């Protein structure tokens, strides 16, 4: 029965009115924190300041004291720590249950989770039972004048950028793509409160067990300082790119064309429907520079483009451009880096 039907004028404040604080999930595995957690704390700090709210980090795991301290240095006002062996190694049901219980008890206004395998795996276990609005794969965040979260993400295959709002339920949840925000440097003088919360998960009631772990040996291009990216211009011959990557101690990345053609695995795709990267050096080999590609690499520190078409759009985004056939230029660059050729000659 509704308040109007009971005539109860002194009704309890709604979930939306009660909700406060911006929460960021800090993802830790065996001592390593996923960089997206720090990116989200930086962005969460901005949102919390706009809203006049506290920024709260939630760390779940075993032996996560260092991650909790770093969360304060990275901008959190408070850290909630659920520290228990039941959380190591990661399983969706203990994480989901612990997160959900805390959300139901404390009702955050916003909850941000990195769009990693882990984040995407358990976020639904929080959002569905709490009726929270969950936007996946978010690439931009803001708040409007009413304090509502504006979560933006590519939609309809990336043709439009949709803004998703959740006016009636809290928290407003988002899984956010790694690499789209820059993490601020930690401030070791920052102070904040660390609160240890009770573990609500009972191992005996946990449905899943980890029998075996298979970890891919593909390096994550998001973490690489240097990338050599291959595009349609390679025609599928990645030899010169691999040679240049080795000389530069770089990882291989790719445009969607190279992935769609099956020349390289999808985990290496850069762009709107791939990954967002910010390496120190990005070398684009035979990549045209379509907007969907540029969106994923435009924040690279130094961009070098090699393309045989002087009008290729990639040159508008490059710090250094070489107009030429990549099959000639890339091996010469590699040789010069290995000290086998004169750098001046390479550029002639
Ligand atoms: C919804 C949507 C989402 C998308 N998401 C992504 C995404 O995430 N990432 C992405 O990359 N793309 C994405 N795309 C595709 C994008 O629009 C382009 O089609 C794609 O980036 C083209 O890849 P490319 O530039 O490598 O290949 P091409 O368009 O084939 O360009 C090849 C380039 O290589 C040059 N070239 C050819 N031969 C040589 C040579 N021998 N030496 C030097 N240069 C040479 C050519 O001049 C040309 O500029 C998306 C498209 C859509 C519609």
Set out the fold topology.
Blueprint: H1 3-6, H2 15-18, E1 22-29, E2 32-33, H3 35-51, E3 55-61, H4 65-73, E4 78-83, H5 92-106, E5 110-114, H6 117-130, E6 133-138, E7 140-143, E8 149-155, E9 160-164, E10 172-176, E11 193-196, E12 226-230, H7 239-248, E13 251-254, H8 256-260, E14 281-285, H9 291-294, E15 302-307, E16 320-323, H10 326-337, H11 343-346
Parallel strand pairs: 1-3, 1-5, 3-4, 4-11, 5-10, 6-10, 12-13, 12-14, 14-15, 15-16
Antiparallel strand pairs: 1-2, 7-8, 8-9
Helix pairs in contact: 5-6, 7-10
Bound molecules: flavin-adenine dinucleotide.
Flavin-adenine dinucleotide is lined by residues 157-159, 231-233, 255-258, 269-274, 286-288, 290, 292-293, 296, 306-309, 312, 325-327.
Large-scale geometry: elongated
Q: Identify the CATH homologous superfamily of the largest domain.
A: HUPs
User: How large is the share of residues in beta strands?
Assistant: 15-25%
How many domains make up the 3D coordinates? Answer: 2
Main beta sheet strand tally, sense and closure: 8 strands, mixed
What CATH calls the topology of the largest domain is Rossmann fold
> Which class of secondary structure composition applies to the elements?
alpha/beta
CATH architecture of the largest domain: 3-Layer(aba) Sandwich
